[in-house]
Amino acid sequence: MKKRWMVFLLPILAFCSGARRVPFEQYSVAMTLAVEPDSSVFIGTDEKFNGVLWLNQVFETEGTAAASVKLIENFGRFYLCADQFKNVWILQPHKDGVSAKAKAVDVTPEDETDVYTDIGLSRYGSRENAMVRFRFNNRQLFIDRKGGVHETYQ
Amino acid sequence: MRLINKLFLLLLLSGKALLGQDVQQLYDQAREVLAAGQYDLALTLIREAKAEIDRDPQADPNQVFAKRLLPQVEKNARTMGELAAALQALNQSVQNDLFFQDLTPGPEAVRQYTTQAKEASLDLVRRRDEIIRSHVLAPEYRSAVRGLPVYAQSEQLASVGIMDRLSEQFERMTTVLVDSLNAVDLRYRWATEKLAKLVKTNAANKAQMEQMSKEVARLSQERLNYINSIAEMLVGESSAESFNRPVTLNGNQVENAFIQAIQSEIARLRSLADVDSTEYRELAHNYEKIASYNRIFAKNRIAADQSALIAQYKAALDAVPVRTPVAPKAPRRLFYYVATALLLAILVVILVAASKKRSAPVPPSRIS
């Protein structure tokens, strides 16, 4: 009988513990970031930045090292690409605060050898369902918050 | 809008025509061109970005471009435009208000004109900097102000433009000054020849010779003053290092007088028996001035480079004997020895005489 009461009490206690959800929209405009000699980029400018990202593994996978990369944040995830890349990289920051899960997305799976040029990143859509609009090679595609790639905004 | 800006915009928009315009890219371009000082093109790009958002609100999901980012760039672009207009008005007003009244040609007129021009330049720079301070721009756009054509125009006006305006006055004075220089040069030569004759024939007394020498020195200085005035007109100020040319002199009007001045200075130095250190400093100062005039005249192609003559002048200056102050001679020791011996002798004589007086025999007393 006592255990049953505990099942009801735990959520109530968790609710009353002081942790509250507040609105926090995590997005940014597209940033063009210079790559440092140690393959890191400061996310932001000068004293206004919110992290450092190391791209050694990204460059290894791409087989090229870029002088600058483009980065945009959409719903807490970062989307990264550079000229001559073969993928768009989706970075999900880990809750430990010092690492991120990096996933390479080839938006043109029909051609595995192509590289992206004249790239551009921007957010597109509604406030609740904004996607990342990726422009490259005179084309554009939309990447949703789950990493799905679409020809048009849905 | 300038043609190049139109072409740039056309190129930019034509590239985006296939996919529609990207607000993010228009925003980036607007910032880029504004940082390069193209505020009018930045405003055009901002208008395009706003129009794109109006056409397709989904291009700006959180309205962060419409409400925050584009207005910021727009505000800076407008401020830069107002700043440019204010600088343009300042440049125009300085050019309109600048007036050099006619002064009697001469060294004093050159000095007054030069001072007035310098003050006008400094005032322009001060007012320009005040305008820049009063138009506050975001840090990333501040350096673009120095790249604005109107800023370059004010720089040009402050550094050489105002002095160029002086050239009208200086051209007027040039003929007068060169004529005066040649007249003084003739008088100097006449006085020098007359002095040489007087010395040769010994036909004048010392006072007349001194008076003639003073006249030669005075004429020499007057000639240097005229050369100095012409040099100042050439450089805009009396510094030999600043070669802003506000006046044009033709032919060899100055060259002959200048060569003559150097030669006569060399001759004068060679004729000097010796000088004291103050006089030598003055001669060295004259040499420095004439050497600087040579640089100015050669740079402005008023006279051929007289470096060879200047080297002779330096050699003559170095050869001038400088009197060293004579230390007062120490009195000879022999004099002291003789004087001491004499005093001792007198003393001995006195002592001997005194002792003789004391030891004189006492007359025997009579015993009765």
Can you walk through the features of this model?
The complex is a heterodimer of chains A (154) and B (368). Chain A has helices at residues 2-15, 56-62; strands at 31-34, 40-45, 48-54, 68-74, 77-81, 88-93, 100-105, 120-124, 131-136, 139-143, 149-150. With 154 residues, chain A is mainly β. Chain A has one domain. In chain A, strand 2 (40-45) and strand 3 (48-54) form a beta hairpin. Chain A is globular. The mean pLDDT of chain A is 89. Chain B has 368 residues and is an all-alpha fold. Chain B has two domains: 3-151; 170-319, no CATH class. Mean pLDDT of chain B is 82; it is low at 237-246. The chains are: A mainly beta (154), B mainly alpha (368). Chains A and B meet through strand 8 of A and helix 2 and helix 4 of B.
Q: What is the total number of structural domains of chain A?
A: 1
Rg over C-alpha atoms of chain B, rounded to the nearest angstrom: 41 Å
Structural class of chain A: mainly beta
Give the strand line-up of the largest sheet of chain A: 1-4-5-6-7
